[in-house]
Amino acid sequence: MNGLNTILIVVGLFLAGGVYSFSKQKMPKGVIVLLALASVMCLVAGILRIQGLWE
């Protein structure tokens, strides 16, 4: 399942870039918060899978 770890981290970083872009464009705060939460969840899931704490 090493590929899934990579996909989760890449998607999380992509979403984090979206948070930065949306904040620069003055998008609604609700959209930015939801995107930030999705980014954090993907990154944490990928890191936990790499550490072997979540399978």
Question: Can you describe this structure?
Answer:
The chain is mainly α. It has one domain. The chain is 84% helix and 0% strand. It is elongated.
SSE blueprint and pairings:
Layout: H1 2-24, H2 29-51
Helix pairs in contact: 1-2
Described by the principal axes of the CA atoms, the overall outline is: elongated
Q: Which range does the strand content fall in?
A: under 5%
The largest sheet, given as strand count, sense and whether it forms a barrel, is:
none
Number of domains: 1
Q: Would you count the extended β strands for me?
A: 0
Gyration radius, rounded? 13 Å
Features:
55 residues, mainly alpha, 2 helices, 84% helix, 0% strand, elongated
Please sum up the structure shown.
Keywords: Membrane, Transmembrane, Transmembrane helix. The protein is mainly alpha-helical.
